[in-house]
Each structure stands twice: as C-alpha cells, then as structure tokens.
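Re: zinc ion structure - here you go.
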Amino acid sequence: MLIPHDTRSALDTVVDLMNTAPESGQDDKLTDVEALYDFVRMHMVSGVGELTQRDLKAVHGIRTLFAEVFAASDSRTAAETINRLVAAAGTTPQLTDHDGHDWHVHYFAPGASVADHLAADCGMALAFIVVAGEQERLRRCEAPDCGRAFVDLSRNRSRRYCDSRTCGNRLHVAAYRARRREAAG
Ligand SMILES: [Zn+2]
Ligand SMILES: [Zn+2]
C-alpha cells in the first residue's frame, strides 16, 4: 500500500496521541497543558498559539474519537466517526510546500485550534486509509497488559504487536499465557 509521507506522519501522530491514553496500558500521559505543549512540539503541529486547559480537554475529546475509529468493527462505523471528526474541525484544504517539503495538502483551517488541527489533518489521514480499503490495519497490540495503538504497515497485514520490545517478543507472550494458565488451573 502506498501511503504518502504526509499521511504517514499524520498517522504517527494519531497513534502517539492514542498511546498517551490509559487504554494503552499505562497512566494518562496527557494530563496537563505542559504535556500538550510537549506533544505539539514533538509532532510539529504548526500554527498553534498559546495552549490552555480548554485545548487540553478538546484534544482529549479528539483522542477518544481516534480510539473509536480504531475500535470500529467495520468501515461504515469508522467512516461515520471520521466524518464527525472532520466536519467538526471545519477543514480548509490548502496546497502548500512550506519548509522545503514537497507539495502536500493541509486540511486544517488557518488559525485552527490544536484540537481542530489534529481532527482535520489526522481525520483525513484516517479517511485515506478507509478509502484504500485498509481499515483493518488500524490495530491495537494484542500482548497482555498492553493495548497500544499502531498502524500495521506490513505487507500481509500480519502484525499483532506494538513496537515495544517486550510486546514484539512472542516468546514473552507465550510464557505469560502459560504462567496464567498455570495460575488459573
Ligand atoms: Zn505541512
Ligand atoms: Zn504492545
């Protein structure tokens, strides 16, 4: 599957945002405005001014909607959530070649809040995946006690675990299951 660079980096942002949430098997990592600033800096979300508690709350809302897209059992359900995300963000597609990048489309409206920026650009990246018929690539790690989100870009859609070292190790998982069986029996 050919994924444009931009879509790919937007998908990385989706996954990283989802993985700040408790569902991914740890404490919430996005609990204050400072953490939101760090996230925005790390993902180079451009054009975002001063951030407030309100932004934080709005981004939590977007994070929940991303999780709903990943949890969607079929493409229709995913599409409905994506449409809601993108519509609420008020998109304004703009071709741009800023900062030496090749031509690509920004979907967020000029002056958009950080939540609207993420909803528009990341929402469109998720839309692209659904259009490509690849919704099942939006996954969560199957390792016990994990649940981190990831996008399976493997050729045969066979990836089951996130990037973390322990999860990627099937032996570790097998050993855990065996121990649990023993404990249960
Ligand atoms: Zn750009
Ligand atoms: Zn994992």
